[in-house]
Amino acid sequence: xxxxxxxxxxxxxxxxxxxxxxxxxxxxxxxxxxxxxxxxxxxxxxxxxxxxxxxxxxxxxxxxxxxxxxxxxxxxxxxxxxxxxxxxxxxxxxxxxxxxxxxxxxxxxxxxxxxx
Length: 116
Prior knowledge:
Blueprint: H1 3-14, H2 29-35, E1 39-40, E2 60-65, E3 73-78, E4 82-84, E5 88-89, E6 104-105, E7 108-115
Antiparallel strand pairs: 1-7, 2-3, 2-7, 3-4, 4-5, 6-7
């Protein structure tokens, strides 16, 4: 439940944002990311994003909820690809590598793939 906190710390430490983002819930992270100059490329047809594994390295993936929870999820795509938030994993929040591509699963739905 601290994924967005750790992503915010990483964004600030890397210089990707100038100040600590204000939103509390990960599902609302797009508000802060857009204000910091990021753009949501999820709907960009040239990128063919059919799963988190298609997101470019350095992207912040924001997840809404499908299970009624209030938090959502946020993670950064690292080389590998690996997914970093309050943990680092070779698996995205909605699927494991090698599973059929999806943007929805495990109580979450990708709502944004934010790049700067």
